[in-house]
Amino acid sequence: MNLALVDDLDYDLNDLQKLFSEYFSLIHEKSNYYLYLSGEEFLADFCPGKFDAVFLDTLMDGINGIETARRLRSLDSSIPVIFITIEESFALEGYTVQAMDYILKPVSKDRLFSIMNRLTGQKKCRHIIEVKENRITRYVNPDDILYVRSTGHFLEIQTASGVIKPYMTLEYFLSLLQQIGEYDESLPGLRFQNCCRGYVVSLDHVRSLKVSDFLMHDGSSVPISRPKYKAMKTAYANYLFSKTRNMID
Predict the structure, then answer these.
(1) Cβ distance 77 to 26 under 8 Å?
(2) For residues 157 and 50, what is the distance between their CA atoms, to the nearest angstrom?
(3) pLDDT at position 31, please?
(4) Given this model, what pLDDT does residue 98 score?
(5) Mind listing the pLDDT tens digit for each residue in 71-100?
């Protein structure tokens, strides 16, 4: 996705670019950013089809964001425009130039991610799980989870890039997975399985099934309780079959 970011404050542009980089990293998609310090600079470089969306500050030196959008509409009537503003009154004026939405400064990650979900239409990004670690909001893509281990009221979510330790019960985490269609005890073909008391494994990252555990691609192992071994064997077989069928289709 190609995004134009227009703001006369370079540090605001840099902060915005960092948030976008985090978002696209979560959904494993490529993105390109074109940074402009004025509306004039942006319009001089604009041509239809170059960008997928424009994020436009309303208050800038020279022509402001609203006027920039008006001139943009004479060049492209359909490109999504999202205003970034310190006052909602400017955002309301933005609807006169068919703005898609607005974001108040300082830019909220949740607000930006929500708009990007609508803009991209990605199913993956709607499935991002939000957890809190030491009062800091963390976003977890289920694709990145190897396994989850419960340690009382805390979880250890082992991901491809490290461990996240939110204050959360395993039961609540399973309910989050269930809400996005990633876990259901009655559907053995889903990739997340409650394989042992206190453990949930992602079959995406399993290298092989042993008698008492799953061997993971990173070399770690996740235990399988004896009563659940037969169910896990069936779940893993169903998962591999489903994955192979999808590749053929």
Answers:
(1) no
(2) 39
(3) 94
(4) 87
(5) 999 999 989 999 998 887 766 677 778 888
How far is CA 79 from each of CA 1, 28, 52, rounded to the nearest angstrom? 13, 24, 7
2-122 fold: Rossmann fold (3.40.50)
What's the topology of domain 131-248?
A: OB fold (Dihydrolipoamide Acetyltransferase, E2P) (2.40.50)
> How far, in Å, CA of 31 to CA of 198, rounded?
38
User: What residue spans define the domains of the chain?
Assistant: 2-122, 131-248
Phi first, then psi, for residue 170 (nearest 5°) are -65, -35
Q: CA of 147: how far to CAs of 141, 160, 186, 195, in Å?
A: 12, 10, 20, 10
The owner of tokens 């030196």 is 61
Q: Check if the beta carbon of residue 213 is closer than 8 Å to that of residue 223.
A: yes
Show the 3-state SS of 16-70. HHHHHHHHHHHCCCCCEEEEECCHHHHHHHCCCCCCCEEEEECCCCCCCHHHHHH
Query: 35-82, pLDDT tens digit by residue?
Result: 999 999 999 999 999 999 999 999 999 999 999 999 999 999 989 999
Q: Can you name the residues that pair with 193 across neighbouring β-strands? A: 201
| The pTM of the whole model exceeds 0.70 | no
Collect all residues with Cβ–Cβ distance below 8 Å to 107 and sequence separation of at least 6: 15, 16, 19, 84
Contact (Cβ atoms closer than 8 angstroms) between residue 68 and residue 39: yes
DSSP code at position 80: -
Nearest alpha-carbon partner for 50 in 4, 101, 119, 99: 4
What pLDDT is stored for residue 126 in this prediction?
A: 53
